[in-house]
């Protein structure tokens, strides 16, 4: 039987990136005379990529900009964020212990995120985690992004796995929808970035700490086989 591939979302699932993402967001807003967004509010806007984050933040302040202006803000955002990508971002508690346990069970790991690939790699390298993943795929890696199921399928293939022995781990409706469309079981974490109550995401399993991940993966891989 092939080794199971465990595919993780990044922001809000593997890494608590909200502090650096929101700090950068508010720097950009201040540059353009827009009031800052409160952290707890901005946290739920994360997950679809930087441009949607900017658009959601501006909309919360009653502002709407044409796409060319959003593109300009996007460029400014990336420049600042890349320089401060791991200032305050950290793995969620128990992550490395869970990866060790899953690795001992023969699992391979991959990242499937709507963050840009080079930013994802940089973040994981800064946190000394990149070497744990057989594939790190972002919104620009393939010709599609989540919730397109082909992004998840291609990520699994790049990691050397197959969709018949894979599990998705995420924090949002986008992650659950992607996994469902790819007919892959999905585990949701309840500590991520979503404006939908985690229990209502419709995942196969819901965990509150990474200590529960190895058992949840084992259950779902068993169900698949």
In the sheet with the most strands, the strands line up as 5-4-1-6-7-8
Mean pLDDT: 94
Q: Please identify the oligomeric state.
A: single chain
Helical residue percent?
Answer: 40-55%
List descriptors.
single chain; 225 residues; two-stranded antiparallel sheet
Q: Would you give an account of this structure?
A:
- The chain has about 220 residues and is an alpha/beta fold.
- The protein is about 45% helix and about 10% strand.
- It is built from nine helices and eight strands.
- The chain has helices at about 20-30, 40-45, 50-60, 65-85, 95-105, 115-125, 150-160, 175-180, 215-225; strands at about 5-10, 15, 90, 110, 135, 165-170, 185-190, 205.
- A six-stranded parallel beta sheet has the order 5-4-1-6-7-8, with helices on both faces.
- Strand 4, helix 6 (about 115-125) and strand 5 (about 135) form a beta-alpha-beta unit.
- Helix 1 packs across helix 4 and helix 3 packs across helix 4.
- The protein is elongated.
- The protein starts with a strand and ends with a helix.
- The model has no long low-confidence stretch (mean pLDDT about 95).
Short description:
The chain is an alpha/beta fold.
Topology:
Layout: E1 5-8, E2 15-16, H1 18-31, H2 39-43, H3 50-60, H4 67-83, E3 90-91, H5 95-104, E4 108-112, H6 117-126, E5 135-137, H7 149-158, E6 166-170, H8 173-181, E7 186-189, E8 205-207, H9 213-224
Parallel strand pairs: 1-4, 1-6, 4-5, 6-7, 7-8
Antiparallel strand pairs: 2-3
Helix pairs in contact: 1-4, 3-4
């Amino acid at each position: 039987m092939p080794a199971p591939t465990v595919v993780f979302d990044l922001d809000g699932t593997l890494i608590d990136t909200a502090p650096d993402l929101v700090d950068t967001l508010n720097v950009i807003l201040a540059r353009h005379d827009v009031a800052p967004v409160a952290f707890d509010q901005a946290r739920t806007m994360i997950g679809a990529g930087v441009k949607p984050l900017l658009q959601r933040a501006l909309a919360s302040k009653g502002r709407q900009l044409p796409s060319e202006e959003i593109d300009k803000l996007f460029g400014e955002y990336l420049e600042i964020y890349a320089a401060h990508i791991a200032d305050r971002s950290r793995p969620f508690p128990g992550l490395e212990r869970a990866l060790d346990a899953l690795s001992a069970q023969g699992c391979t790991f991959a990242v499937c995120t709507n963050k840009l690939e080079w930013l994802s790699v940089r973040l994981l390298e800064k946190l000394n985690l990149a070497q744990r993943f057989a594939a790190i795929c972002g919104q620009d890696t393939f010709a599609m992004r989540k919730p397109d199921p082909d992004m998840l399928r291609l990520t699994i293939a790049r990691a050397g796995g197959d969709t018949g022995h894979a599990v998705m781990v995420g924090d949002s409706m986008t992650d659950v929808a992607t996994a469902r469309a790819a007919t892959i079981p999905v585990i949701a974490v309840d500590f991520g970035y979503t404006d939908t109550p985690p229990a209502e995401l419709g995942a196969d399993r819901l965990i509150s700490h990474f200590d529960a991940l190895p058992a949840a993966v084992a259950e779902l891989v068993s169900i698949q086989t």
